[in-house]
Amino acid sequence: MALNRGFMATLVSFLVLTIANLGVAKAVTRGVFAHYMVGNVYEDHAHQDIKDASAMGLDGFALNIGDPSQAFVRQTLNYMFDYARDNYPDFKLFISMDLWAAGSAKKGLDDFDGLLRDYMGHGAYYKGPNGYPFVSTFADGGLHNTTWMDWRNKWANEIYFVPDFDGTEGYYLSDPAWWEYWGDVVDGIFSWESTWPLRGSTQTSYWKNESWVREGAFSHEKAYMMGLSMLQYKNSYETNLYRAGEDNLSWRLFNLQQMSPAPEYIEILTWNDGPESHYIGNIWPEQNNETAPTRYATQANFPHDGIRPLLSSFISSYKAGKEVMEPPTGYDAVGALWYKSIHSSTVCPDTDDLTSKKPDGYSAASDLLTWAVIVSSIGGPYSIRGFSGGQELQTFYLTPGYNFGTFSSLQEGDQRMELLDGTGKVIMVASGGRCVTSTCPDGIYNLNPQILELTMDTSEKTCTEPITDIYPPISTTAKYGTRLFGFTDCTPGYKKDIERAYDDFHRLTSQKGVGEKIDWTSAAALEFLAPPLENQDQQAQIQDVFAKASTIYPGFYFNPWQNWIKVRCDDPFNKCPIICNQEDYGTLNAYSSNNDVDEIDYPMVNFCPRFFTMPGLDQVVESAAGLTKYKYNMNKYANQAHTLLHEFLHLHLVADTENDTPNPDIYDLRINWRAYNKDDTGRRPSHPAGYYVQRNADNLAFFALAEWVRSKKGYYPYIPVIRRQELTRDPTVPSGRVAYDTQDGDLVISSDEEISPFDQCSTYADLAADGSEITRESLNLTALIDLSAYPTAYQQELAEFLEMYDALGDDE
């Protein structure tokens, strides 16, 4: 099926019901925004969002805020407002009060006053046509018109209010009674729910509700803001639903062209709502980190930026009031091909978890390829043809402007669309993406589409086969996000340090190569997690620990199913004064327990005074990087974030280790060895090295830290290095080395002070709810892994490093 403007002219009559009753259209200012979920986001990522959105022609972001009291809200707004004003002065921002989420957070309309007061006067805040700050909502909050009028009067009526009140009675019928009740409250109206068909419906072309609402707004001299979106697929937060989907976006773009007068505003749903699948922007890991949605919505596996060129051309035409859309100057076309990556024959394992079920509305998902293309009026004629699973499908002939339709088949394997010029030459192609399969690679009925941009790369790209073994059953451990609470006896300065360390902990665990796709042959993995021959049976569990740890973060908007970790600074078990480092009489940094002493249903971490003398993650990396020789020594990188990671790994909630299932408990492994000239001997370990490293918090925490240093600074801190040496006496070895040998079958290690654990003060022990120490297995070392067990490339790299290191001068 294919449609274009020439063909569609015959269908415009069904839209005349809107036009006939409106008379002459008034001139309007047209603005296009994207709905932006405000949450925990790094500053550079917030800036990138503005840069990308501005590049595609958006006028700004509607900033969805659910709980205005959260600290990350102001932090993120500060990142965005100042950057937009200073770098993209035409890109504006306005606040959209999410009263549905606010209600769940026990917040109300008045709780937004502080934010509105502080930001409505900012140079980057968007103003309505009356010159006043533009304010919107998601939902009406169940409030009466009198409450809203009182709220307006609070601002002396000096706002431009365009709310989403589409849940109120009579809204979609544009009932006169609705306008009598709400007319004085609003300056315009915004429709959210009509952006998609009802669940189970395939009527993507249906337009009557939208037309009635637009007619009502126009006849009452109010602005109208229309929603624009591809689909809604959500399989998280106790919800599993699907609303088409397929050619929904295509039809809305077409119908919008026919609407006269056009809406004053369009709001694209959304820029970054990963869990709802209707994002067109960047899905940053720090915002979208909870287990359930990352199965189907990640930037790596499900990017949606391929739809942006099409939308960009639409935005340009819409704002210019053009009847015929055009691609950018010099382009033959812009467009995209999109599809779901599972076949209708797919059967997923059925468990008790709601996520494993078919989504409500699943029957509306069709086995077809959807396309939309805008072709130039210069050149041509143009045509497109589709391929699915290597099978050639239909060919459609295009007319200048906007064309859209579907290829009526979806086969397993590659999907491809070709744009041909008048000679039949292929000049643009949409291909690649994820392969369509009849299996269930994600463990769920994943309906988040693959979007393939039409580009000038005409090569034969193949699709990417989904990995089928990386999604174990979703653990309930931390899939809803985790917040810190309590902060017992923590000063404001201490609390700030802890919250910063919590942010940095997430950066450590969610970084590529740690939270996902560990490179088991990297230097950090080889040294802290053991060579592959020694950890191959533990790799899946080690990866799972980091994957689960990366979900320990609040997430990017309120949800009522959060997990909680109790934070204390009052030392309930009186462990902080213990001297753990004889050299400098250092005391403990922190300790943890899976049961808080007062609230035993919650895990607990206590931070000791020494913790607050440690540097932050960024501070220590920058400080060490300025050194000549010591920057290669991991001892120099101990910091608050890696300490917090160490403590969190002891918690069942973080590492998913309750009852040693599915991952083994992580504790502080006691390691015994025979020092030179000592008589005590040990026995050989009964397990491979991977068995022990996956149980030792220091190994895991320092692996993440080492990868962070390497990724940020481009070098790997090899020191300390283990060097084999025949021991006839207590050896003297070069700085940064630890000498060892075996005597009578026992490991003998130099008594050099550098062999002590990196930071003995990161924790005290594994503690029960009463503060007593839990007895754990220890490791009696009698041999170390021979260097020959390590890859040749690593051995060569290490040798070259040591040659370079020995030639360096000492730091002052």
From TrEMBL:
Task: Please provide the record's keywords in A-Z order.
Answer: Signal
Q: Which N-terminal residues, if any, form the signal peptide?
A: 1-25
Q: What SUPFAM superfamilies has UniProt attached to this entry?
A: Metalloproteases ('zincins'), catalytic domain
Q: Name one Pfam family in it.
A: Glyco_hydro_71
Name one molecular function that GO assigns to this entry.
Answer: glucan endo-1,3-alpha-glucosidase activity
KW Signal (keyword) present: yes
Is the keyword Iron-sulfur in the record? Answer: no
| Gene3D superfamilies per record | Collagenase (Catalytic Domain), Glycosidases
List the CDD domains hit by this protein, alphabetically: GH71
Q: Which domain of life is it from?
A: Eukaryota
Q: What is this protein called?
A: Glucan endo-1
Q: Which organism is it from?
A: Lasiodiplodia hormozganensis
